[in-house]
Amino acid sequence: MADATHPTPDAWVFPKIGEELFEALRAAHAGRIVLQVPAGLIRNATELVDRIRTETGTPVVLATRACFGACDFPSRDEAPRADIAVVLGHAPIPNVPLPRPTYFVEMRESGGDPVQLAEMVAAAQIPRRLGLVSSVQHLDLVPVLADALTRRGYDVRIGRGDRRLAYAAQALGCNYTGAEAVEADVDAFLFLGTGRFHPVGLAFAVDRPVWSIDPLQSLLETPIDRGGLIRRRQLAVAVAREARRWGILVSTFGGQNRSPTALALQERARSHGREAEILLFDRLDPRDLEGRALDAYVNTACPRIALDDAANYAKPMLTPPEFLMALGELPLEPYRFDTYH
Question: What is the CATH number of domain 5-105?
Answer without folding.
Answer: 3.40.50.11840
